[in-house]
TrEMBL record, chains A, B:
Keywords, ordered alphabetically: Oxidoreductase
Residue ranges constituting the Pyrroline-5-carboxylate reductase catalytic N-terminal domain according to the UniProt record: 3-107
Name of a matching Pfam family: F420_oxidored
Keyword Oxidoreductase: yes
UniProt name for this protein: NADP oxidoreductase
GO molecular function per UniProt: oxidoreductase activity
Keyword Disulfide bond assigned: no
Protein source organism: Arthrobacter glacialis
Amino acid sequence: MKTAILGTGTVARTIAARLVELGHDVTIGTRDAEATLARTEVDAMGNAPFAAWSAGNPDVTVASFANAASGSELIINATNGGASLHVLALVGAENLSGKVILDLANPLDFSHGMPPTLFVKDTDSLGEQIQRAFPAARVVKSLNTLNADLMVHPDQLSESSTVFVSGNDADAKHTVTALLEDFGHRDVIDLGDITTARGTEMLLPVWLRLWGALGTPAFNFKIVR
Amino acid sequence: MKTAILGTGTVARTIAARLVELGHDVTIGTRDAEATLARTEVDAMGNAPFAAWSAGNPDVTVASFANAASGSELIINATNGGASLHVLALVGAENLSGKVILDLANPLDFSHGMPPTLFVKDTDSLGEQIQRAFPAARVVKSLNTLNADLMVHPDQLSESSTVFVSGNDADAKHTVTALLEDFGHRDVIDLGDITTARGTEMLLPVWLRLWGALGTPAFNFKIVR
């Protein structure tokens, strides 16, 4: 599938590499492709320079947000939650119309120190904000409840765990669920419409504290019935 | 252990019966013991009249909030979250001083319709509100992330699942953890101080939506590593 990934950080890179491995046609969208490809410094999170990563992943095209999205059927939002609406505006509503947006972002607010809080919650969610801003797109919230490695390689854990999908469009949720299964997920729970993203985004506070208590981000929620 | 349970609903009854089964000395605390024992109507949630339940559970004493708590080492808050601070004020700070309060309540706000939202979240929690209101008590938040039956009989699920403890006092968390293990819990994660109750209370929104999606409250979170 022709897929655009918005963002250039760890989540974007991890998803991009895995999609290429699975045979997808992947373009990373960024504000200024030339500037991104010229980056030789480590990023704010300590990741390898984008140029080095790109050299090791030659099958991933890099383009502007709009160009990456215009030719793609699936748009994956792997930007920071605080930047997501702005980036999607740069992509442009015309490039999102009818498309599936897989929204991985969390509405984390670091302005009050650590651990971060959520800038939208409980009576609204980032997933809903994106759906309202781009009503012709088909937003599916998923994979925001586990770390990048486990998003695409859930078999690294000792046993099967659970991921969730939230969205208004059944076909879009089927598309995303098939992708999740390709990644290796065996238990995908459809929570309902996009308002149910309130639930999965509000998992972040306990996720952050579990990271502290367990000393590793290599864990995931499993819903035991 | 001499234990007071605050509340007369399903959670209080379920915990009380299980504690008696495990050999504890249990008193249910209520506003007016005589009035509670005289109740012959089903309650707002459709539960059997308290009088009928009490007749079937003769080993559970019923007393006023203050009398139930004054002679007990462990106080279990099984009231509705919206009533918890008021009920604990009726118990009285002098009856809570030095005691372990196991807080099971969730800060659910039903005033905006279903599903409920949370009246405190993200930058504060009900567990913290209780700890601040009764600084001489030792509050441990736990078991607010699963339904009453599973709180005390987790072996009803197909496999082991996870529960959490949050609190400032290590000894109080050990007391609660031992009780959870007596109930049958095999994976108890100590998340840290009482501020980590923000994380587990914020699990409620996804819990409520999972109940809808799965069609049953008989499920629990497991943290797969």
